[in-house]
Amino acid sequence: MRSTVGWQLEGPSSTLRRTPLERRDLRPDDLAVRVDYCGVCHSDLHAISARGDGDGDGGRPLVPGHEFTGVVTETGPAVTGFTVGDRVAVGNIVDSCGECAMCRAGQENFCHAFPTLTYDGVDRHDGSVTLGGYSREYVVRDRFAYHLPAGLDPAAAAPLLCAGITVWEPLRALGAGPGTRVAVAGLGGLGHLAVRFAVALGAETWVVSRSPDKADDARRLGARGLVVATDPEQLAAARDRFDVVIDTISAPHDLGPYLRLVAVDGTLSHLGHLGPVTVETMDLLVGRKRLSSAGSGGRPATAAMLDFCAEHGITADIEPLPSARVNEALDRLRRNDVRYRFVLDLSDLD
Ligand SMILES: NC(=O)c1ccc[n+]([C@@H]2O[C@H](COP(=O)([O-])OP(=O)(O)OC[C@H]3O[C@@H](n4cnc5c(N)ncnc54)[C@H](OP(=O)(O)O)[C@@H]3O)[C@@H](O)[C@H]2O)c1
Ligand SMILES: [Zn+2]
Ligand SMILES: [Zn+2]
User: Fold this and answer.
1) The Enoyl reductase (ER) domain covers which part of the protein (predicted)?
2) Which ligand minimizes its atom distance to the CA of 105?
């Protein structure tokens, strides 16, 4: 085993503590990556709260972090696509069966045998619990590491690997582009990248937010404007206007007001808070509207997104912090006090 150090949840609290960790010895197709920057995703908060609520995980270790960039420090003997010193990026999937129809179609994120998640997943070979990127080293199968294109800042690019790809795939699949109108609900980590992508793809893009003070940011990101989600008049004026509504809201919420923004035959893509939802079918019936969801991305789409970001100069708006301030970052994210992604600098773990 290899030794490293990371930020692990301790006991029933919601506090992460600096903890020595073990990584597996390299398999033939593994890379060892020195993790330099890891984004703080709202899903990390959900995972931490689920432990706090006693979700019955019997003390399974939790080290969050599933959007990171770093440098290859060692390669297994069968690795051909990477060499020591390469800049790489890793997202929230680190393995899949490779054989099912979804994997063969390049949708490893929908693997029938379920993809191996970057943290709180189960390794398909040795059954160990995966520990995430809030740590100084990660060992990853080469297929699930991506070359970080030259020109992308490694700290600001880290959030592309979860927040970015999660909104990129549905935007592409739903045809966002010239002649379409896109609304992004919730201007946070996912939301601000969705705005950048939709604008760069050529769609007329708007933000729907309960935070009117984000209007200037929305325009700076390229949106036409911001619809205040708590203002019934503004919602009524925006009724039936959007071919695609990308819902990145991190809390359970009524889908009705957002479905009413969708145009005839348009789609509400519900990506944020996952779990059971109640839908008034009349909100779908009137306008033949569609409700969809998605998560993460396959390998081809992830690589294509990174190329698109390099071409268009797209990265996240970040607030970098030394990793020792991880608990402060999580507290502020919980309070919606970030514009628009915390990124941990793991170099303080050396
Ligand atoms: N499908 C997937 O694979 C996937 C991947 C990554 C993340 N996620 C999920 O996506 C969600 C967003 O993640 P994130 O990292 O972008 O979070 P985030 O940075 O905290 O942004 C979430 C945004 O949602 C809005 N919001 C928060 N609470 C709200 C409430 N009670 N009512 C209405 N709006 C609210 C806020 O935007 P405004 O201030 O603009 O209203 C906030 O900025 C999380 O639930 C996360 O777990 C899913
Ligand atoms: Zn995430
Ligand atoms: Zn599969």
Assistant:
1) 11-344
2) 3
